[in-house]
Amino acid sequence: MENTLFKGIIAYPITPFDEKEKVNILLYKQLLERLIVSGSHGVAPLGSTGVMPYLNDEEKQAITEATVTQVKGRVPILVGVSNLTTERTIYHAKFAEKAGAAAVMIIPMSYWKLSDDEIVRHYDAVAKQISIPIMAYNNPATAGIDMSPKLLKRILEIPNVTMIKESTGDIQRMHYLKKELGDSVAFYNGSNPLALSAFAAGATGWCTAAPNLIPELNIALYNAVQKNDLQEAQKIFYKQIDLLRFIVEKGLPRAVKAGLQILGVEGGYLRKPLQPLEEHEIKELDRILQLVNN
Amino acid sequence: MENTLFKGIIAYPITPFDEKEKVNILLYKQLLERLIVSGSHGVAPLGSTGVMPYLNDEEKQAITEATVTQVKGRVPILVGVSNLTTERTIYHAKFAEKAGAAAVMIIPMSYWKLSDDEIVRHYDAVAKQISIPIMAYNNPATAGIDMSPKLLKRILEIPNVTMIKESTGDIQRMHYLKKELGDSVAFYNGSNPLALSAFAAGATGWCTAAPNLIPELNIALYNAVQKNDLQEAQKIFYKQIDLLRFIVEKGLPRAVKAGLQILGVEGGYLRKPLQPLEEHEIKELDRILQLVNN
Amino acid sequence: MENTLFKGIIAYPITPFDEKEKVNILLYKQLLERLIVSGSHGVAPLGSTGVMPYLNDEEKQAITEATVTQVKGRVPILVGVSNLTTERTIYHAKFAEKAGAAAVMIIPMSYWKLSDDEIVRHYDAVAKQISIPIMAYNNPATAGIDMSPKLLKRILEIPNVTMIKESTGDIQRMHYLKKELGDSVAFYNGSNPLALSAFAAGATGWCTAAPNLIPELNIALYNAVQKNDLQEAQKIFYKQIDLLRFIVEKGLPRAVKAGLQILGVEGGYLRKPLQPLEEHEIKELDRILQLVNN
Amino acid sequence: MENTLFKGIIAYPITPFDEKEKVNILLYKQLLERLIVSGSHGVAPLGSTGVMPYLNDEEKQAITEATVTQVKGRVPILVGVSNLTTERTIYHAKFAEKAGAAAVMIIPMSYWKLSDDEIVRHYDAVAKQISIPIMAYNNPATAGIDMSPKLLKRILEIPNVTMIKESTGDIQRMHYLKKELGDSVAFYNGSNPLALSAFAAGATGWCTAAPNLIPELNIALYNAVQKNDLQEAQKIFYKQIDLLRFIVEKGLPRAVKAGLQILGVEGGYLRKPLQPLEEHEIKELDRILQLVNN
Fold first, then answer.
1. Is residue A266 included in any domain, yes or no?
2. Lower CB density within 10 Å: C or N end of chain D?
3. Does the residue A37 lie in any domain?
4. Residues of D in contact with C231 (CB under 8 A)
5. Which pTM does this prediction carry?
6. For residue D37, how many other CB atoms are within 10 A of its CB?
7. What pLDDT digit, counting tens, does each position of A213-228 carry?
């Protein structure tokens, strides 16, 4: 089934820059490779973690191509193609399909609050132009729009919209999706601190930047759930929750970048206006990472 | 340990009235007996479900005494003694202790938003006057105050405050409590639709009015968690979620009253301004109860 | 017209207690007299400022009677009679009418969120038992319920509900009331920091505890608006805004009590859980009062 | 003084497209001319109304140049140059200055919530590259970030940040700005339904798309305030409030486009995902415009 293309841990790479804020493709491939070899079940370039909205068209295309080249079919690829205009969204969705993505992820980015009808037409216009599945992504914190369960249900009537990524942080949304949509639609958790609750509620996968820093714990949580071992899952979850909360609170690209540095991994530079974490924040992260790894 | 006095399903009885809005103690005892024989692990009179704030001092005392008489030691009793003034809270806490309550539950009711210091002093003043444990109750929706995790931590430094009931509906609060307070403090879930997530997060018990209508499912959820069977817990949870959501959305006393009527159980009258559910709401509840019981 | 009973500055007295937390009627009368002689156009005992919800039935009645005795018809009296149950609300509304109140103020206090129908029936049940006008009071921060403009319109269909006090702090509500209800209904501002905007929007009066501390500035603002002098109104408003913000932020009874002390006026004690302001808060208030009076 | 470059009514043109979603510069100039001849005191191309975020670099530059050409110095021009990255913001700010803008408007667009430090550095980096003044724009609804009064104060320490546009819809923010910053900084209202309150609070100007539809009423409100005639201002405000609310609720570009059509003015096409208003919405707008013009 299309909706089981992705499951388990779907890892989000960062997009590293060089000193002059140019995308560093070579370093990107190295960081991506870390995610694959550490056992992630899928990868998702050009997500929020990958600062997709800060990249121009050429840069996005270079990242997509580099991902396909590096992955070499080892895991399925989910490419973020969201854009403020429908025309540019279609453009990048077609590019991703042609390049070899397994699916595309689309959040209805908005400057002006879009009506439900505008959002449905937006998804529909893109869906008509590609053959691969679409993961509809709900995240009011970054998109400025909160797609209601009712709207998501409408969007899921579009044939190749087969997956939902839920990042409101409200577990009731997942209960609703599971209850209303049953097994015909896979839903994915995009809210890191909800990882345990979401799996308990029946999420098919977890979309997360955490494998850049703690892949073993992320994968162990999924495995415990697969083994129906709630006590083990709870124990593993509480080992990583401080890290999950920290990276969400500080912003994923900045926090992952700082974490890589602590781990001794080259993570490149950020693109402005993003700035490195403050010294005291880095110390806090250092402390959290040491506790996590004990 | 004091903090394991209560565990599992702590059932909240309604307070039934007669036609003239007088408390009907005889009927109260019958409704309470249903909760005990159906297997609840504890009972909690004078909660929100029992419309405690709508009762005068004499009525509250009559309910407390009737509960002790009826329970006859079969399960522990948690009596709600919250009041706007510190003086009245102390009065009812002492009464409950003397009558035979195992513990009292206290929410910092507020008309004026209380400062953290005022809340701590309020709990402290009550705690000094009784020997039984206190369950601190956080529920911004009814109290008008949201006690921060930091404040709860301060309150827990008071020796006989040993339990927390969390009803914000935010699972992250429970993660925090579990992580920060470890096993020294028991926390209880007071948000019905969070029942699965809360148990997954390590809640010791579930404070709920649902056993008035679906005791078997409530207890079965707890049992599945005790057996470490996540898949079974998930299945049982999704069977009852529509009912849990309904009773919360419509208000517990009104919804329980309507549900009892559908089940053919006499539930008495409500006290105004509370009114019976509308006809269409009763039909919806009827439909939900039929699905639940299949 | 009934709806012009009250206009201008409607002053809210505090309820002072003695050392043992008993209501101090003698001191209450002195504090009330200050409000009258300083020029307030009406007085409103048993409001939030008067900690009405913290008083028992006998105490409320004593305050009502003391107010009528002291005022001696010099200004109209608006008595707060809100209660969680409909029965007690009726009881106090009838008492107020008999004692000589010009009108009663009713907020739909709620523990359980009331439905629109429940709120309308509540007002209707009270209105049927008295002949004096009712001011419907909307204040989600203290009542836990936010009456929508649509609901307020329904309540205003009850014949003796002729005034609305709006305390959401959202000026758009007043725009709506003025636009929808025209001149047939008087609306009053209950949000101190909105005083200028509300008068600019057409509010008939300002319900405020500020005259306990700065009556001249409160009255001067109203007078400037009456004279259609916007620039003067703006100037006077900015002179008092820091004080208005302070008393709202700290809670009216506590802030007024502290302010009286600074002004050298005996204000009695608070009833617990309310505690006096902290030392640093009192210093801040002192600084604000000195600036205001220059 | 630099901060009085703009005052009164600063009108926001829409950006019209042709059938194929290309920017229609000729039509843009005609629509801009309407704003100038109807008496607006300034114009602001590339605002939210002008769907700036939906335009690519070349399109933005064409609009800027067309504005300068058309205005011919008759009114000052405020060009929107906000961008997700600091580098692109600088690029467009420099372009606007060179083209002849009187000032630029910058909102800290964010995908990732920016820290206060990141925002200050962003403004500072742009400010250093241009000589014309900057209007800092706060609008959490479109930017996803709410700049606190404290942060705005920091930004205003940058020499050529001399104006603030406030669009939170909270009049208290303007009170704070006026009180804290005094007369050294001009603040502008960007929330249409707050027009009366904002002028009453001392706003120097009103940034609005309304002059596309009802320029006479917008200008009359400003004139009444200038004449210190509060009653007249109130009367004129209530004549236009329904229109102001409608265009905000429906989204400015879509609502202005529909309004132009009703007025018989060619407004071009929208760029997708934006869609024309629904039929019933157009009827409502028609009714409102008829009432307004009587």
1. no
2. C
3. yes
4. 228
5. 0.95
6. 10
7. 999 999 999 999 999 9
